[in-house]
């Protein structure tokens, strides 16, 4: 039962393509596994592939943001307050 998916961004296209590949790999692992070893075989195929899919999606999302971040430059850091020898009320500390 074929279905059609529409990806609106390159990231969506990547994720859909890789998810379909993952599904096929998991199905092949399940089909090839001997009785009593299906869960282990499916997990062995799915977990590393799912991690790779997540890594690729994160990388693609960050790559998309990189040009805009480079254009903006580094964020300005807050200026540190100068050390003051005055007390809380603004008067010099008491001395004995």
Helix content: 55-70%
Give the structural class. Answer: mainly alpha
* End-to-end gap: 90 Å
Count up the helices: 2
Secondary-structure element string? HH
How many strands, which pairing sense, and closed or not: the largest β-sheet? none
Report the portion of residues in β strands: under 5%
Radius of gyration: 28 Å
Which shape, going by the Cα principal axes?
Answer: elongated
Extract low-pLDDT stretches: none
Mean pLDDT: 85
**Count of β-strands:** 0
Q: Could you explain the architecture of this structure?
A:
The chain is mainly α. It has a domain of 63 residues. Helix content is 60%, strand content 0%. It contains two helices and no strands. Helix 1 packs antiparallel against helix 2. The longest helix has 35 residues. The model has no long low-confidence stretch (mean pLDDT 85).
Any key phrases for this structure?
single chain, 96 residues, mainly alpha
Give a quick summary of the entry.
Helices cover 60% and strands 0% of the residues. The chain is built from two helices and no strands.
Per-chain topology:
Blueprint lengths: L9 H23 L5 H35 L24
Helix pairs in contact: 1-2
